[in-house]
Amino acid sequence: MASSNAAGFATATTVKAEAAHSYSAHFALQWCYGSVPHGGFLTSVFMTVASLHFRTTLAKQNQPHTITLHLEFLRRAEVGPAHFSVKDVKLGRQTSTIQITLTQRGREESLCYITNSNLHTERGLTLSTDWELQPPPPKIDFNKLQKDEDENWAAFPSLSKFRYASNHVQFYLPRQGQIMRGLVDEWVSFRSGEWFHNESLGLLCDMWPTVFEPYRFVGSNEQSMLWYPTLHLTLDIKKALPFEGVQWLFSRVRVKQIKNGRFDLEVVILDEKAEIVALSHHVAMVVSADRNMAERKSLGPSKI
Fold first, then answer.
1. Would the pTM of this model clear 0.85, i.e. be above it?
2. Contact at 8 Å (CB) between 98 and 113?
3. What is the bridge-based pairing of β-strands 153-156 and 107-117?
4. In sequence order, what E strands does 166-248 have?
5. What is the pLDDT of residues 241-264, one digit of tens each?
6. CA distance 227 to 206
C-alpha cells in the first residue's frame, strides 16, 4: 500500500487565500479521471475553501463544520490553476450559507452552495429511528484487514490508468462479491497513510469501483470506453470526524435506475461504529470517454 509519487490528498487540496472572498488552488493530473479533475476531489476542494473562509473571513460565526453541500458541475474542469470566489449568502446564529464559484481561464466550471454550523455545540430534538443498513454488510476485523487476511473483505487493486484519482485510495470489497447488482459496499483507506477528515468526505462520497461492473457488455469492450460525469451532487454531513481523523470509512453506493444514459446514486457513509457520517445523492450521465479527453477551446465554454 505504498504511496505514489503524486501529492497526497492534503497537499493536493491546498487552497490559498487571495483576498477576503477570493481563493486559489491547483488541480493535478494525478487527481483526475482522464483529463478531468475527479468530481469527489473537486468537492473536497470546495469544502476546503469553505473551511478556510469560515476560519478567517467568517471566524466570528464560530461555524467550522460543513453540514450541507449542493454542487452543480456546469462544465469540465481541467488540470492547472483554479480560482474560487465566495459570496456570503446568509449569515445566521445557528447556520450560515455561502456560494462558491469555480472559475478557470475565464469559464465558470462549477457552482456550489455550502451551509456551515458547529456540530460540537449543536443542540435540539434527538430521536432514535432504528435505521440500519439492509441488507447488512459482512462483518469486518480491522486488524486482519490491514494484512488483507479478513475472512469477508479483500483488497481491490487500482482500477485503471484512466482513473488516476482512484489510485490514491485502497478499496476493500466483499470476498464473496456484492450483495446485488447496482450496489457497492466498500471499506476504504488512503494508500498514502493519511487519515480521513471531514473535508475528505467530498472525495469519498464519489469514490468507488464502478457500479456498472456487474452489467458487463457481453462480447464488447464498450464499458472500458465510457465516462460517468456527475451533473449534480448533494452531501449531508451528520457527524464531525475526530480532529486527528479516522483511518477507515465504509460506504454503500446504490443505483436505482439507469436509463437513457442517465443514472442516480445514493451513498451512505459510516464509521467503524456503524454510525452515519454522511449521506449523498448524485445525478450522473453515461457518455463516451472521448468526451472526457476532447480538446478544450481556449475561450469558449467546455461542455460536459
1. yes
2. yes
3. unpaired
4. 169-174, 183-190, 226-227, 230-237
5. 999 999 999 999 999 999 999 999
6. 14
